[in-house]
Design goal:
This protein is α/β, with parallel strands linked by helices and 315 residues long. The protein has a single domain, classed as 3-Layer(aba) Sandwich (Rossmann fold). 39% of the residues lie in helices and 17% in strands. It contains twelve helices and 13 strands. The protein has a seven-stranded parallel β-sheet with strand order 3-2-1-4-5-7-11, with helices on both faces. The chain has a two-stranded parallel ribbon with strand order 6-13. It is globular, with a radius of gyration of 19 Å.
Amino acid sequence: MRIIVTGGTGFIGHALVQTLLQNGHAVTVLTRRACPAQNLLGNTKVVEWNPMASGSWEQEFSGVDAVINLAGEPIADGRWTESRKHSMTQSRIDATKAIVEALRAYSTRPCTLINASGIGYYGTSNGISIYETVGAGNDFLADLCVKWEGEARRAEDFGVRVVRLRFGMVLENDGGALAKMVLPFRLFLGGPIMPGTQWVSWIHRQDVIGLVQWALSHLNVTGAVNAVSPDPVTMRTFCRTIGQVLNRPSWLPVPQFILRAGLGELGTVMTTGQRVLPQAALQGGYTFFYPTLEPALRAVFSNAGARGMAAASVA
């Protein structure tokens, strides 16, 4: 397949691009910073784009089979000021809108758009099980996801199959939330973010890549797909399992007021939770590489020595 990937230098995108290439696909990465992206991705075709302006990058959409849109400013890299919230929203909306308009321009357009989203779509759940059929929440993340998915769904108007992957916490050793949580455990200072009863809906990055490939190859898959494992756990269990895998204690709780004081609204999100389940993937026949937490964490930390815990992103 000929595939375009945006966000192809980030925590998920970089690994996805390498897997797609290994499986024989022809991949073009659209990026705002072509030179560092080319250095990171090697022989992969890299095209510089500006989603706010027309350009030669739009020609790349002619005749491709699929587009995978992962573009967007990271959610958890800083306090949610009004300016940052605006940037997080617009970086996703602008990129998705530009992709849809580029697709509209060609009669030989891709048959599939796989668009990233997040389980923040649902708001907080208070422990109830959440499937893809549950409606949107009413907080900032929910509003962001609704707008983001809404832009992607416009491609359905001209015959493109749109799959909206709603990511949970993605686990690997070279980035994401887990990389930031591990240091206290290594210093024997690890513990749960209080209250500890909030649900963590997680997924190993290998399963994110697996779900993308599954969605590419199964043309009956459409609409929302929860990209989470079938084994959500409480924060207390999540942190206790980190401690067990690292042979470290999980004894020092992180009070809610500290997170809220330091991170504002983002801290509030980290102290609440969602029990999200991958009903669409399971009913569609997807088989998880890591359906339960402990083996997933053992796989993550077994690779940590080889690749380190630093994220690489030039998106």
